[in-house]
């Protein structure tokens, strides 16, 4: 249950997609001066050293962020600015997790609610967040904690859910968490990350969202090769409930280029569509 460590995978193509979507949503929501709550149910360590034996065991960052140049993606310049702020050397020594990206974007009055169950990653998370009165960090089940955080006092929130899916029941648990959260707080933005290891599991999630009665759901997916039950994760994606109106245009513009950059078979593997209309 607690064996997964994101440090093996930090900066890979899945992180690139997840974090671009995260930054674009927060940037849009912060156009209004009203306070915003950021809720991260599976926070990880917050910052990852890409020079450790752990990171270099798989070196997945080389096939993800290592293949990208900021100047090729001006539409998402804020994402690359935050990467530079997290690693001023510019030499790909560190990669930020979602909690640090969010912290760098927090304004006065915004709040960040971070949850991490793994004891070692929790300690790293606390250290990496530092002393910041806008941020609350807890070591507990993030999906259970989410129930107590909704609706937020601000009535404006972005919820990021990205478990490891080591336990197969998590596919059902994340859907249930969003369905329950949406009933309590229908105007929140919910961003759910998923891996494509077995396409049938994602097809089932698609259908659950389609049948859920929840409107306005978009889907963005990025892959390195065609679906395969033998290669492990070949793609990953994001479901976004109540996405900013500009998100589809931005992702439609960059996903073909991202897919070409990270491809290992020479083809483009991506999805960018509306799963459920408004």
UniProtKB/TrEMBL annotation:
UniProt keyword list: Methyltransferase, RNA-binding, rRNA processing, S-adenosyl-L-methionine, Transferase
GO function term, MF aspect, one: 23S rRNA (adenine(2030)-N(6))-methyltransferase activity
Record-annotated site: Interaction with substrate rRNA: 4
Reaction catalyzed: adenosine(2030) in 23S rRNA + S-adenosyl-L-methionine = N(6)-methyladenosine(2030) in 23S rRNA + S-adenosyl-L-homocysteine + H(+)
UniProt GO BP: rRNA base methylation
InterPro entries: RlmJ, SAM-dependent_MTases_sf
Annotated positions binding S-adenosyl-L-methionine: 19, 42, 98, 116, 141-142, 162
Family: Belongs to the RlmJ family.
The protein's name in its UniProt record: Ribosomal RNA large subunit methyltransferase J
């Amino acid at each position: 249950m607690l064996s997964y460590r994101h440090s093996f995978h930090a900066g890979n193509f899945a992180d690139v997609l997840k974090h671009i979507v995260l930054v674009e949503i927060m940037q849009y929501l912060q156009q209004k001066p009203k306070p915003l709550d950021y809720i991260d149910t599976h926070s990880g360590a917050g910052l990852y050293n890409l020079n450790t034996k752990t990171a270099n065991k798989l070196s997945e960052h080389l096939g993800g962020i290592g293949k990208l140049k900021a100047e090729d993606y001006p539409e998402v310049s804020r994402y690359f600015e935050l990467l530079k702020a997290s690693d001023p050397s510019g030499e790909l020594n560190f990669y930020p997790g979602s909690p640090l990206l969010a912290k760098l974007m927090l304004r006065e009055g915004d709040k960040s609610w971070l949850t991490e169950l793994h004891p070692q990653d929790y300690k790293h998370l606390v250290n990496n967040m530092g002393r910041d009165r806008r941020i609350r960090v807890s070591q507990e089940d993030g999906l259970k904690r989410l129930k107590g955080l909704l609706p937020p006092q601000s009535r404006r929130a972005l919820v990021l859910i990205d478990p490891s899916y080591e336990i197969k029941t998590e596919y059902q648990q994340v859907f249930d968490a969003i369905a329950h959260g949406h009933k309590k707080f229908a105007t929140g933005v919910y961003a759910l990350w998923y891996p494509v290891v077995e396409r049938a599991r994602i097809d089932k999630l698609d259908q659950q969202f389609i049948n859920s009665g929840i409107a306005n759901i978009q889907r963005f997916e990025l892959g390195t090769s065609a679906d395969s039950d033998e290669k492990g994760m070949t793609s990953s994606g994001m479901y976004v409930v109540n996405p900013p109106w500009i998100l589809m245009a931005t992702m439609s513009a960059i996903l073909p280029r991202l897919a070409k950059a990270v491809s290992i078979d020479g083809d483009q593997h991506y999805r960018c569509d509306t799963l459920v209309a408004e």
